Amino acid sequence: MKLRQWQSRCIDQAVLQLSPQSPHFFCQATPAAGKTRMAAGLALALLKAGRIDLVICFAPSRQIVAGIQSTFADVLGRRLDGAIGAVGATYTYQAMPFLDASFWQLLDQYRVLAVFVEIHHCAGGDPVISNRWGQEILQRVQDRATYTLALSGTPWRSDERCIALARYSDPHGTLVCDYSYGLEAAVRDGACRSPRIVLLDNQQVRLELQESQARETKEFGSVGCLLRESPVTYEDLLHHEDIMVRLLNLALKKLTEVRSHVADAGGLVVATDVEHAHLIASYLARMGRTA
Fold first, then answer.
1. How far apart are CA 177 and CA 246, in angstroms?
2. Contact 69/81 with Cβ under 8 angstroms?
3. Burial of 105 per CB tally in 10 Å (0-12, 13-18, 19+)
4. Which of 83, 91, 108, 169 is the S-S candidate for 173 at Cβ 3.0 to 4.6 Å?
C-alpha cells in the first residue's frame, strides 16, 4: 500500500533525526490519519538500514494490539506476535508490569525500536506523579531501547500531568512534537473527513406521570426542558425503546443514502456500557441489520 505524503515525510524525518544522541521521536497525528502504518513504515526503513534488530509495541487495548500486529505484518512481511520467526511482539500497557526480567533484557541484548501507541495514556516525566504505565516506561525502556517512537492523536492528559517520553517547552509549557499532522491538514489531504454533528431535538415532548390515582400529562418544548423540569434522566432517554428505534431508523436512512455513492460505508453507534451496546444491537437485529 502506498504511503500518504505525511507518512513518508514523517518517516524520512525520523530516520534522519533518530540517533544515539537523540533516540526518542514523538509523532502527533490526528485520529485515523494512519499512525500505525507510518510506524510500520519507519520500522521497515530502520530494519532495511540495519539499524535495529527487533520491534516491540505497546498499546492501551487488545483490539489495538491486534490491529498493530495485522498492519506490521502487512508492511514488514513478518509477524509481530512474539512467536518463533517473528520480528518482534506487541503487548498492552496493562501487561507491562507482568513482563519478567528476561523480557526487559532484550533491550540490552538487541537493538530495539520500542513503539508506544496512544502514549498519552502514560503519565511520565516525574517518577513521583507518573502513573503505573508511565513508571514502567521511565524505569525499563527510556534509557535502554535503541530508539522509541511515541504516537498520539490527542497529546494531552485531562489531569494535566506530563506524558511519558514527551518534551515540553518549559515545566508547564507546550508539548514539543517532532512531527505534527493536524485534523485541518488531514481533511485538506483527504486522509480524514470533516466531522459534521447534527443535533436532534423534539419540540413536542409529552410525559405521562402517575400520581396516586390520577394520571397527569405534561408537555415540554425540548429535550433539555424535559431533563431540567422533570424527574426524567438522560439515562432514561438512552434506554427508551421508542426513542432508540427512532434514532436508529434515522441513522440507517442516512447510511443508505451515503452507501449510494460510498458502497462500503459503515455506521457507529456509541453506547454507555456493554449492556447498552447489546440492547442497541438487539434493536438493529430486529431491523434486519447486523452489528
1. 44
2. yes
3. exposed
4. 169
Residue 206 CA to residue 212 CA, distance in Å, equals 19
- End-to-end, the C-alpha distance of the chain in Å comes to 28
Across the range 34-53, mean pLDDT stands at 97
**Residue 215 banded pLDDT, cuts 50, 70, 90:** confident
Strands annotated E in 137-183: 147-152, 167-168, 175-176, 179-181
- 89, pLDDT greater than 90: yes
Q: Is 180 exposed, middle or buried (0-12, 13-18, 19+ CB in 10 A)?
A: middle
Q: Taking the model in full, what pTM does it have?
A: 0.76
What are 260's three cell numbers?
449510494
List, in order, residues 6 or more apart from 196 with CB less than 8 Å away. none
Rounded Cα gap, residues 134 and 112, in angstroms? 19
218-253: per-residue pLDDT in tens? 888 888 898 898 888 888 888 899 999 999 999 999
**Sign of the C-alpha dihedral computed for residues 80, 86, 87 and 91 taken in this order:** positive
Nearest to 132, CA basis, from 175, 108, 166, 161: 161
Residue 39 Cα to chain centre, angstroms: 15
d(CA 87, CA 90): 10
Closest by CA to 37, choosing from 67, 62, 60, 82, is 67
Q: How far is CA 218 from the centre of its chain?
A: 43
**Under a CB-based contact definition with an 8 Å cutoff, are residues 44 and 53 in contact?**
no
Which of 198, 191, 119 has its CA nearest to residue 162?
119
